[in-house]
Write a structure and sequence with these properties.
alpha+beta, D-Amino Acid Oxidase, Chain A, domain 2, 2 domains, 10 helices, 19 strands, oxidoreductase, FAD/NAD-bd_sf, monooxygenase activity, FAD-binding domain-containing protein, FAD-bd
Length: 353
């Protein structure tokens, strides 16, 4: 528990890592402000493979794993996890989740840390956690000499479709919570079966998620402004995906993937429900400084092919809470301990991939 019930944490980034960090801090007695640049709509995404091995098996870790897995599922839709975490956050009186807030700088002094929005509003707290993804503003403060993640040379097309839209004869060909991998001249395709709307698990009620790794469109990404100077700027969504590219993806899918996989992709292409996300990687040499720390993709970005991003964010959250328990009266010592616990581990994990 914090030494002062009014001790206040600022979290930059309200995606999965930021939501988990907010819940952990709130349930330990802190007041929390989460600042998210996007609006409140749920992200489509694809699927997340959840690790079952606990980090420290603390109470908060058990609670977060329960929320993520919805009990016992080891493959879950990104949006389903996001919705459950959002609902849990909404029930916490100590958390303020503020959307449409783009942070442009962070800073600290001996007694506080703060984040400043592009509108000039300053949010001040006793400490600050950056959970703001691969283009992290917090990372630029902590490591100005290496502020950007490295673009790996390919992007991943992700999404999910309702199994009910697929031919009924294919419904039982895939098992719940299982992932399937295929390779071709078009790249690597991973599909997975997960609970559908309202948690439906019977054939025909489920979601089929996909990740298609594609290294053939780097020039186009530069032309579209997704890449600038070799640095990824944003993902491709919906209407921002050119018709010509969708037609090319449709033809490529039909020529390279089996009929069952092609049927999934054709639905997503037709509906423009897929997302083209540049794949980035970042190996950190720092995780914290004074009253500011970073977690998840802000701290250590990796390819989604590893399936470890969400799980590492959860482990970062647990490590911070364990460190606060060890140093309840000094947030700077606690965040320093977090770096000691996690830095060498995540560096080694990234180098071994």
């Amino acid at each position: 528990m914090p030494q002062n019930k009014l001790e206040h944490a600022i979290i930059v980034g309200g995606s999965l890592g930021g939501l988990m960090m907010g819940l952990a801090l709130s349930r330990s007695g802190y007041t929390v402000t989460i600042l998210e640049r996007a609006d409140s709509s749920l992200r489509n995404g694809a699927f997340i493979r959840l690790q079952t091995k606990p980090y420290s098996n603390s109470k908060i870790e058990q609670e977060l794993r329960q929320l993520a897995s919805n009990g016992n599922n080891n493959v879950e839709a990104w949006s389903a996890i996001q919705e459950r975490l959002r609902n849990a956050v909404a029930k916490e009186s100590g958390i303020t989740l503020q959307h449409n807030t783009r942070i442009v700088s962070v800073g600290q002094n001996e007694s506080s840390a703060w984040a400043t929005s592009e509108e000039g509003q300053t949010f001040k707290g006793d400490f600050l956690i950056g959970a703001d993804g691969y283009r992290s503003i917090v990372r630029r403060y902590l490591n100005p000499d290496r502020p950007f993640a490295d673009y790996t040379g390919y992007l991943v097309w992700v999404g999910k479709v309702d199994e009910e839209l697929l031919p009924k004869k294919d419904w039982k060909k895939r098992q719940l919570s299982s992932a399937y991998f295929n390779n071709s001249a078009a790249g690597t395709l991973t599909t997975a079966v997960m609970p559908g709307i309202e948690g439906g698990t019977n054939p025909g009620q489920r979601w089929i998620g996909f990740c298609w790794f594609d290294n053939s469109h780097n020039q186009l990404l530069s032309e579209l402004g997704v890449l600038k100077g070799g640095i990824a700027q944003h993902s491709l969504y919906g209407e921002a995906i050119p018709d010509s590219l969708l037609e090319e993806l449709s033809q490529t899918s039909q020529a390279n993937w089996n009929k069952e996989d092609d049927a999934i992709l054709q639905i997503a292409i037709k509906d423009r429900s897929l997302i083209g996300a540049p794949v980035n990687e970042y190996i950190p040499n720092i995780l914290s400084k004074g009253r500011i720390a970073m977690i998840g993709d802000a701290a250590h970005t990796m390819s989604p092919m590893t399936g470890a991003g969400f799980n590492d964010s959860l482990n970062d959250t647990v490590a911070i809470m364990d460190s606060i328990t060890q140093y309840p009266h000094s947030i700077t010592k606690a965040l320093g301990e977090y770096q000691t616990l996690r830095l060498d581990v995540v560096r080694q994990d990234k180098k071994s991939l």
